[in-house]
Design a protein that fits this description.
Layout (H helix, E strand, L loop, with lengths): L6 E2 L5 H10 L4 H11 L15 H10 E2 L7 E4 L5 E6 L5 E9 L2 E5 L3 E3 L14 E4 L2 H17 L13 E4 L9 H12 L11 E5 L3 H10 L3 E5 L5 H7 L8 H10 L8 E7 L7 H10 L5 E7 L13 H13 L4 E3 L25 E2 L1
Length: 361
């Protein structure tokens, strides 16, 4: 366990680092200098921050530290996806998934240990909710995977040697950890920090309607809604959150969501055989989303042991897509990645034993 008397600087936004160094009698400029060092590859201690005075570096050692994830368990999928299991200071484990493509590397990030939302089709829900992640535990997933990519032999890389895109679609409900999520986004997008762009960050929610507005006011990231049904009865049975925020409340929150003209909400729709995949439901999906600037991702269900749902046939998926597309929407079928290592959507959960051989970073 880390010394809790010291401050983990990777938990702090740039403004908070400035406040921290001012409490040590230093100028705000020193805080901005530290931020510029904190997320550089290979920087692991204060002695490497060579433009800081030696006595101030010694003061930092006494009062602060830089956390990092080390030695994650790594599983590689046959399709190129890589799943990382990170051990936290309290012994809990979280998972992140790298989805490489020739022009990008998308990292699926976790925000909680487990999840409280209890969606009936999701393996993570079987863990229950354990705790929220703090900002450093969110940001360090990105840092660790960035280190992994930089250290990979060039011949093994599918995409760039850095993380280019983030999706908060891993373990947990992001809007139930909103304060830490927003702080993490501030760190991730800070020019002196990881310098990522808002347009390459997507936050997904299962429908915490009363917190969506705060996310939209305080960030400019992309929003994805896990919809998965077109009527309250079906959604109630799949997603208990619908008992708190009905479909109409959720859709109204989407209509009210503060969003730049160029942006659209992404609606995620898992297709479950004989449950929500009929022609009638496709037509209803097109109807209820009318007037909301959006695009639609269809996800044929990733089957998981112990869960009763099945994936529809490809023809059924294509027929569903055609109906919604013919109604004027941009509709995409998301290709499942990482299924063979339980890294696909809805499959992240701490395994008692890895299903495949694992490596250490």
């Amino acid at each position: 366990m880390k010394n809790t008397a010291k401050t983990d600087l990777r938990n702090l936004t740039q403004d908070e680092i400035v406040q921290f160094v001012e409490s040590l009698g230093q100028s705000a400029f020193r805080g901005r200098q530290i931020m510029a060092w904190l997320y550089r590859p290979g920087i692991t201690d204060f002695s490497q921050m060579t433009d800081l005075a030696k006595d101030f570096r010694a003061t930092l050692v006494d009062h602060a530290y830089m956390s990092a994830f080390s030695d994650p368990l790594i599983q590689r999928s046959s399709d190129g996806c890589v799943k990382f299991a990170f051990s936290l200071d309290d012994g809990k484990v979280i998972e992140s998934v790298l989805i490489p493509e020739p022009d990008r590397n998308t990292l699926c990030v976790s925000v909680q240990v487990g999840c409280a939302m209890n969606c009936s089709f999701c393996l993570t829900a079987t863990m229950g909710f354990i705790r929220n992640l703090i900002p450093s535990e969110i940001v360090n997933q990105v840092c660790a995977v960035g280190d992994f990519l930089r250290n990979e032999p060039k011949g093994k890389l599918i995409g760039p040697d850095r993380v280019t895109n983030l999706v908060f679609m891993g373990m947990g409900e992001p809007l139930n950890n909103l304060e830490n999520l927003i702080k993490s986004i501030s760190i991730l997008t800070e020019q002196r920090g990881l310098d990522m762009t808002n347009r390459r960050i997507t936050v997904s929610t299962c429908g915490i309607a009363d917190k969506m507005m705060q996310l939209g006011r305080q960030t400019d990231v992309n929003l994805a809604i896990s919809l998965h049904a077109v009527d309250d009865k079906t959604r109630d049975s799949l997603m208990p959150v619908n008992n708190r925020f009905s479909l109409e409340e959720l859709l109204q929150a989407c209509r009210d969501y503060p969003m730049a003209k160029r942006k659209r909400i992404m609606f995620e729709y898992i297709l479950l055989k004989d449950i929500n995949d009929s022609d009638e439901e496709a037509r209803e999906l097109a109807r209820i989303l009318k007037g909301i600037p959006c695009k639609i991702n269809l996800l044929p269900y990733n089957e998981s042991p112990g869960l009763p749902y099945r994936s529809p046939s490809r023809n059924r998926v294509y027929a569903f897509q055609k109906i919604v597309r013919d109604a004027g929407y941009s509709v995409f079928i998301r290709t499942s990645r990482g299924e063979d290592i339980s890294a696909a959507c809805g499959q992240l959960a701490k395994q008692k034993q890895p299903q495949q051989e694992v490596d250490h970073a």
